[in-house]
Give the backbone structure.
Amino acid sequence: MIDRRKLRQKLDRIHTTLYDEYKDWEPGWKKVAELSRSFRGKFFNETNKQFLRRSDDVVDNILNDCANVLAAGLQSGLTNPTTRWFKFKLRDADLMEFKPVKEWLYQVENIIFEILLKSNFYKLSPLAYKEMGLFGQPCMLQEENVRTITHFHLFTIGEYMLAADDNDVLDTFVHPFSMTVHQLVSKFGYDNLPKTIRQSYDNNQILVRHNVIHEIMPNFMMNKGKMDAKNKPYLSVYYLQDFREDDGILRISGFDGFPVRAPRWEPLSGEVYAIAPAMNGMGMSKSLQKWHLSRHFGVDMQLKPPVNVPSDMYDNGKKPSLIPGGINPYNSRKGENKVTPTMNVNIDLSGINLSIADAKNDIKTAMLYNLFTAVLNSDKRMTATEVEKVSSEQMVQLGPVLNNITGEFLSPTITTTYDYAYKMGALPPCPPELEGMELGIEYISTLAMAQKSVELSAELDFTQFVGMVSSYEPNAKKKLNVYELIDDYADKRGVNPKIVNSNDEVAEMDKAEAAQQQQAQQLAMAQQMLEGAKTLHDMSSTPAGRGV
């Protein structure tokens, strides 16, 4: 029996502890949200009016533009819904060459791709990547869904708090939010709510809002002898923050694995949150806004310069016209009958324009703009070599980030989706050779292949080298294992195994061809023997002594 009061005390302590760490990061995130004008980020105690007006002073939106390019580039380069971006693999290399196993793995891959396509994964993943570029990490909750098998919920910065274990692996999630009475009844059921909320519902006060907290953490109360939802490795609890009646707990359930995906861009030692590329460009972003305001001031000075106006122009209620094209009559001196401008102002803005351009370039560099632009602008799927040529320095910088995304986001997403699909009977029967074996994941997206470009390029360069040497020494071709090269290339590029014949199938084809050749040779020899016998017969039947 769960001690609900003890549980509630534990939940409150976790919430308070995580909020204390969160507060140190919030000012920096707020500044990014303001300067990016992305309307991402919804911070605690921030009203909707403050949320909508917090970016009024931003005059250059380059930071948000770069974040959009980064998000689109990661989506296209890592999780493009139109291409295969991962495949399953086994540690046993020999078993991977077994064609029934290959075909089963390929079939399962297609099913997982289809599940993700029908879910809201591809709708939310670009927003998750944008959160990562702006604030250091996104936060996405993956849950089981009867209709689509899996479903995702994306939270923006300021809506959640995280904690990690002693191995720096995320294991705790806290999400404070609010719900109306109507929503509470819909989600948790009328009978599971405190008396005061039920009364509000009965009195049609359904739009009254209440503070709710959702916490997910390692299950410290787990009873390994039970298999129900409350005794899974991770505990999930919804409770009313401001209610003590029955401890305010609304629902207790659990997960088999930690369901929150929060890949970190640049983790800091001892910190659960990460540094974002946008944070590296914050100094220039601030300066950029100031320089824009200074340029606007200079343009205003040119368009509407300050002027010295003779006092007599204000005599008798007159007022000088200082608008463009304005005409101001004046008493001319003798011989000075000409029209003149009131004042000329000429300000050189080239210096500040150069500063603005430099600041934009620095921000683009921090956000890896050139790399992701190249990925997006390619009219075909970029090869590893093409991506590598864009900027080898940026690819090196991006390498650890890609590892974080695959390790903390994509791999657990794929694994959990597989588990849900298996649970719901959506997968084909497993070949007996794979019983009890663990599946691995290999990424074959554009950016993942760029990381492997050195290995693939070396194989292709070697092939070309052998071809060149063979022109001088034909026997050099014997050094190249063509079949192994084809299998390796197809494997790394994620080619459908159904169109690649196995070594056993090739051996069978070679055997059949040899048998056909042997049969043809035997037929040819038999034909020759028949023709020879016919010739001898013709010679023996020729009359003796008959000449020409």
Summary: Residues 503-540 form the longest helix (38 residues). The mean pLDDT is 83.
